[in-house]
Design goal:
The chain is built from ten helices and 20 strands. A hairpin with a 2-residue loop joins β8 and β9. It is an alpha/beta fold. α3 crosses α4. The chain has an eight-stranded mixed β-sheet with strand order 4-1-5-7-10-11-14-15, sandwiched between helices. The protein has a four-stranded parallel β-sheet with strand order 17-18-19-20.
Amino acid sequence: MGEGVQMKKILVIATGGTIASAEEGSGLAPALTGEQLVAFVPEVAQVCHVEVSQVMNVDSTNMRPRQWLMIRDAIMENYNHYDGFVILHGTDTMAYTASALSFMLENLSKPVILTGSQLPIGTLRTDGKENLITAIEIAAAKENGVPVVPEVCIFFENDLLRGNRTSKINADNFNAFRSYNYPPLAHAGIYIKYDTGQVYHPVSRKPLKPHYLLDRNIAVLKLFPGISPQVVESILNIPGLKGVVMETFGSGNAPCYDWFLTMLKEAVSRGIVIVNVTQCSAGSVEMHRYETGHKLLEAGVISGFDSTTESAVTKLMFLFGHGLTPEEVKDHMNCSLIGE
């Protein structure tokens, strides 16, 4: 192993999750520290020098925007001292954290790789060791002195996925995550094979610009056959509501009930931004395709195209957090900020 590789420094940011869990009286709960987790994989010393920052030790179902800011702070405070970052995180909300960080770390030029496991690292058949080892190797990977993957990603089982394109799709299997609408950035087999043409690279090299402002006045409205006016009305009339991610059918279709369309129009007229994403795992919203989708367009609903719900939610939080007007938010939702 060359000296240049040995000198690379990776910061592991530990937040808890299943990978750090042990059996407690009422079930699995985070118990191990980041230092203890890294001790399970002494092999990484062959790749780089690893240090640990323990920012929290929680189940990821308890993650909130405040915790995303803590993770961002750990990256910012150490940004100039490390070649890359690996975030150990619970799987349940990992895609939300990855999406949020992709917006919060503007001009990112180093790898930020989130990973975790479906089984605690101390169990016999854990997937945690391989995930951690490979995530560290990817975070340390450089070509001609430039990081191979300078973006926020999720590595799980064998695939490296763009963070804001990823959703958790399986609660039992080791291949817990999938990016249906964007190809993997790398596949780890005997070798790690990168698809460098799919990797996001900043147009110009600028200093990392962290963003601190997030607005939690966002809701998700998932449609289902027989949804009642009371359900829709209660969501669209939440005090202080600014944005709604509406999960529709197929290519962005919804019922044509008069009461439903009227409620949407009234909400839009009050400045609420309603973003249409599909409930399907793969595919894109095309509101011009069917009459039912076209009526949503006429009501003022905007397309989320092929965004995940996780990405749409965190992007709305990010945009409204910066004080943008509803029209400005709509404009930004209609374009890709960071490959989402």
